Amino acid sequence: MSLLEVRHVSQHFGSLVAVDDVSMAVEAGELRGLIGPNGAGKTTFFNLISGFFKPTAGHILLDGRDITRLAPHERVARGMARTFQITEIFPELSVRENLRIPVELAQGLRMQPWLTRAADVRIKERIDELMQLGGLGAHANRLVGELSHGDQRATEIMMALALKPRLLLLDEPTAGMGSHETYSTSVLIRKLHRSQNLTIVLVEHDMRVIFNLADRITVLAEGAVLDEGAPDEIAASERVQEAYLGKAA
Ligand SMILES: Nc1ncnc2c1ncn2[C@@H]1O[C@H](COP(=O)(O)OP(=O)(O)OP(=O)(O)O)[C@@H](O)[C@H]1O
C-alpha cells in the first residue's frame, strides 16, 4: 500500500480547472519531485494534499485511509506536515523559541498553564536535537528574522519535522535563494530524508535540485499529469521538453 494516494482529484475555481483528474501514488520512504511550468497547478495540488483546499472531485488517502475531508491540523495528527513557498516563521522570536512551538504541540503540551520540570527537560532536549539535525546549533538564541534566508528555511523545515511527520510536503524550499544556499538546503533535505525515515513530496522550480534529490518525478502541465518516472526518464521525455520549451517560447 502506498503511503499517499491521490485518486482522480480535480480542483475548479469557477470555470478554471486548476487541477484536472490527477492521480499519484507515493510509496513510503520515497522522495517524489513535483514539477511543471508556471501555473501548472503545483501549489493548488499541494493545498489539496495538505487540506487547505477540499477538492471538487476525487479522493486523497494516507496509509489507505480517506483523508479527503479532513482539516489541515487533522492531517498533521495523521502524520503529515508541510512548509510553504513563503517561509512561515516568527522573525521576532529566536530559533529556539520558534522550534518550541511545534515541539510542545507534538508532545501535547501547548497552552498548558504549567509544565513539570521533566516535561520542560524533554522539550529542551527535543529542541536541541532538532537544532543539531538542522545545522542550527550555532544560531539557537538568535532572532530568526536576522538569519540568512537559508537558515530561516532550515528553521521552518525543522519546525515541520518537530511535528514528527511521516510525510513531509516541501513547497519550493529553495525559492529566492542563491546557489550556495540552494546547495546547503538540498544537502539538508537529503540528510533528513535518509536519517529520519521520511517520505517527502517536493515542489521545486530549480531543476538541479529536483533531478539531484528525487527518486521519481511527477510532471504537471495545465493541471494534469503530463509524465511520471525516474529522473533519467523525465530528462529524456520529449513531452516534458516540449511543455517547458513551449512555455519558454
Ligand atoms: N485560490 C485561487 N482562486 C482562483 N484561481 C486560482 C487560485 N489558486 C490558483 N489559481 C489558478 O490556478 C492555476 C494553477 O495555479 P497554481 O498556483 O496551482 O500553479 P503553480 O504550478 O503552483 O504555479 P507557479 O509555478 O507559478 O507557482 C492558475 O491559473 C492560477 O491562477
Automatic annotation (TrEMBL):
Residues 4-247 form the ABC transporter domain. It holds the Pfam family BCA_ABC_TP_C. GO terms for molecular function: ATP binding; ATP hydrolysis activity. InterPro entries: AAA+_ATPase (IPR003593), ABC_AA/LPS_Transport (IPR051120), ABC_transporter-like_ATP-bd (IPR003439), BCA_ABC_TP_C (IPR032823), P-loop_NTPase (IPR027417). Keywords: ATP-binding, Cell membrane, Membrane, Nucleotide-binding, Transport. PROSITE patterns: ABC_TRANSPORTER_2. SMART domains: AAA. One of its GO terms (cellular component) is plasma membrane. CDD domains: ABC_Mj1267_LivG_branched. PANTHER family: ABC TRANSPORTER ATP-BINDING PROTEIN (PTHR45772:SF3), CONSERVED COMPONENT OF ABC TRANSPORTER FOR NATURAL AMINO ACIDS-RELATED (PTHR45772). This is Amino acid/amide ABC transporter ATP-binding protein 1, HAAT family. The lineage of its organism: Bacteria, Pseudomonadati, Pseudomonadota, Betaproteobacteria, Burkholderiales.
